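can u pls check wat happens w/ 6-O-phosphono-beta-D-fructofuranose
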Amino acid sequence: MTDVVVVANRGPVAFRLDAGNLVASAPGGGLAGTLRPLLAGTGTTWVAASLGEAARLAAERGQLDTDGIRVVAVEIDPADYAMAYDVVANGTLWPCHHHLFDLTRRPRFDWHWHEAWAGYRRYNRAFANAVAEAAASGATVLVQDYHLSLLGSMLSELRPDLSTVHFCHTPFAEPAVLGVLPTEAVGELLGGLGGFGACGFHTERWADAFRRAYADPELAEAAGTPAPPTFVSPLGPSPEALRDAAESPPAVAAARRLAEQVGTRKLIVRVDRIEMSKNLLRGFLAYEELLETRPRWREQVVMAAFAYPSRETMAEYLGYRAEVEHLVARINERFGRPGWLPILYDPADDYYRSLAGLAAYDVLLVNPVRDGMNMVAKEGPLVNRRDGVLVLSRQAGAWEELGSGALGINPFDVTATADALEEALTMGAGERAERARRLEALVRRRTAADWLEDQRRAAG
Ligand code: F6P
């Protein structure tokens, strides 16, 4: 894969300084963690933003390359990075694609925002220059995610010899929601994506929304370019890597701790970043409704909520976390009794503890309001040992593949979610086993390696 360049905001390793010493750790975010083992030992070039002082030091010392992956760090001015990552990528494009705009108040496209858009453009430009410099003649360039939407048109001008692909890990906004963005910005966005040789999505639904944007008269005029070819390639977990991790000593120790906490009670699990699209609040409210309207479940069930912090440079995420934690505390206060805490809430970013939860659930609740794929919904059925039932939002990309094995919910309907939890908790052993088998088979149809291969193929 020496002729392949992967481009993503995050690199394969994160760095921090500990008492002046450089410490390398696993990257944040599921995407980088998925890509790294796939690319290990392949000689692939990975272009990523240089995040923070420690990463800069690692670059200076030539310590960026890892696992046989050549890492190219893109230096971005910190103010530009904050504008690109916080204001545009996560503050605007993320809520746009997840249909999370609160139109009474947000977004507001004022002069600060337009300045941030210029920062997003410079961030994309810095990446385009770095790729243009690093890529061999005729190389295949696989660009990941909404942070880098403008790279297609930039690279087609700078390096027309490259085969470029963009893969979108989020949903893609419906044209009406995309139309909320300022005309010039949405034009630049669609024009940027239109410059790629192909654009990939986890589901047909997101690919269809993308193509319809270019068919919308106003958006098409702003874009000034036709839709590029699209392809659909659902990402799946790497079953062997997941099984090894689930059987590793830290996962076994975490499983023991969890079993002690849960005892003989039924266990509902959720594992999410603390993120508005994940719909944690309605998930907890549904659990509260279950305890309220079916009192027989009190003391008989525990919800383990492994919800780890995310994007905490942004006020919205901090505010959402505070709301989530307040709700959890209120429910525990209201229903908790000596010896029974209804919600075991743990905001530590602990992969092995999350795996222990996935191995042990009776019910896995995955209820995003909208989600590109949702890997938890796929990882759960692979590692679970109790014929656990998956309660899954019909708005998650994973629904397209797993719907026939899961209990589907409208993520906005708290009562329907409480009903689905009840149905899952009371389901007979035969049906549980049958559904668990079906889900596992559905998940195994697609691995992370298949997904990567699809991108290479789409590049032609
Ligand atoms: O789902 C989209 C995505 O960008 C993933 O690619 C990534 O793993 C996740 O969100 C986390 O995002 P961040 O890099 O902002 O922590």
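DSSP finds 19 helices and 15 strands in the chain.
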